[in-house]
Amino acid sequence: MKFLSTSAAVLVILFFSCHQAPQDKMAKASRENKGGWIYVHLEGDPSTIGYQHGYLLADEIDTNVQAVAYWLQHETHRDWQFYRNAAKDFLWNKVDREYKDEINGIVSGMQAKNKHYDSLDLTAYNALEELAFYYVPELENAAKPHSGDNKAPGNCSAFIATGSYTRDGKIVMAHNNWTEYIWGQHWNVVADIVPTSGNHMMMDCMPGFIHSGDDFVITANGILITETTITQFVGFDSTAIPEFVRARKASQYANSIDDVIGIFTTGNNGGYANDWLIGDTKTNEVAKLELGLKYSRVWRSKDTAMIGSNFASDPTLIAKETTFNPKDPTTSPNARKARMEQLVIVDLKGKLDVATGKEVEADHKDVLQNKMASNRCVICGHIEEDPHGAPEFDCPPFDPMGAVQGKITTSDLASKMEFWGHMGHPCGESFIGETFYKAHPEFQWQSKYLKNMISYPWTLFQAKQ
């Protein structure tokens, strides 16, 4: 990993200090550890928000960037400098000025805590998903065309519902994040951000992210956003706008569902291709934007329940931009789709609220076996315990990854800038590294950064008003 020289670090600190004293920058910022999460309140112009972020979370950013770089080296066979080069070659010049200022602010805040990173480190880190799982496979596929060797993740389960599907007729939105535990254990930041322009927003994220990343966002003007990935997606355009920039801009500046769709589709690079679930509490309408690279589709309604579990729905997008088989019931996305449809659309119709939403996120019913299980075919995924494996993920039958946390909100909660968060498996089970590594020593290499992932109770978060 490249660090700044001591002289360069000093110059960066002096530059920001000349414009605003550190104590002034931190005047409106705060941090609180709560329920396994780190809540941070960030407020001000872009460089101030960034400085607060970097200063308050310097240790956590340092730890997780190291863990991410370590995992990427092992799994993609490319070192951190490769990802820094990608940031320099085609990402940084497509980042909006205000987000460049925010990233530079994070760097400055970290420098003040003696953590010496630069803007390329933070840019590559923010673009983790689109670089590792879209850009790298695109390079590999160019060397062996039509191989179908793509790595677009099939992670996360989510729903958004409104009208006759919810208990009060208003919007309910829920999401659980599936990812590798080695960095998913650090997807534990609740960022409450009040920028000088745009929306007051609150989201979950990893330390150092200027966007949510797994994407669960509420805003003060009533916009709700979450998503699940389109698995086995093929395609990436390095000349277009990074996904993490569009995701942050949609959170900060969208005032309607149309705004969200417009921001995501403008300059779309295909990175981190998702089914975006969007709600507007002002109109009680929800929508699904299925966004590939060249193909997209939108569904919207004021009386529906929309689900996501990494399956695509549009036949053209499936045929043209994925290698996914929607007719194979044994894959994780299709198995979870069947269970989500049964729960969200049928069994719990008219009953969806915070309590039942939490039950959905913690669900362990395997529809293939028609029994409770702990594997990749249940909504609360536990791949570290899965004896079956699944080829669409291109991973071993056992793997330390799965549902690392969950979130849920409603129209009423969002009107008060509140959501519930659960750190660790939503079902309440904890991952204990010592036990897992004894049973699966092939993963002992991860023990350098992954010890345990403890499951905490559901915790209510409220933005600072």
Q: Quick check: average pLDDT?
A: 92
Q: What is the top-level CATH class of the domain at 6-143?
A: Mainly Alpha
Gross geometry = globular
- SS-based class: alpha+beta
Which residues form runs of ≥5 with pLDDT under 50? 2-19, 391-395
Q: What characteristics describe this protein?
A:
465 residues, 6-stranded antiparallel β-sheet, 9-stranded mixed β-sheet
In short:
The chain is α+β, with helices and mostly antiparallel strands.
Describe the structure.
- There is one protein chain.
- By secondary structure, the chain is an alpha+beta fold.
- The chain has a domain at 6-143: Penicillin Amidohydrolase, domain 1 (Orthogonal Bundle), CATH 1.10.439.
- Helix content is 36%, strand content 22%.
- The chain has 16 helices and 19 strands.
- The protein has helices spanning 6-19, 22-25, 46-56, 58-76, 80-91, 97-112, 119-126, 128-143, 181-184, 243-253, 257-265, 315-321, 332-347, 354-361, 411-415, 433-439, and strands at 30-34, 37-44, 157-162, 172-180, 189-195, 201-205, 216-219, 223-229, 274-280, 285-291, 296-301, 304-308, 365-366, 371-372, 401-410, 418-423, 431-432, 452-453, 459-462.
- The strands form four sheets. It has a nine-stranded mixed β-sheet with strand order 1-2-5-6-7-8-9-10-11, with helices on one face. Strands 12-3-4-15-16-19 form a six-stranded antiparallel β-sheet.
- Strand 7 (216-219) and strand 8 (223-229) form a beta hairpin.
- Helix 10 runs antiparallel to helix 11.
- It is globular.
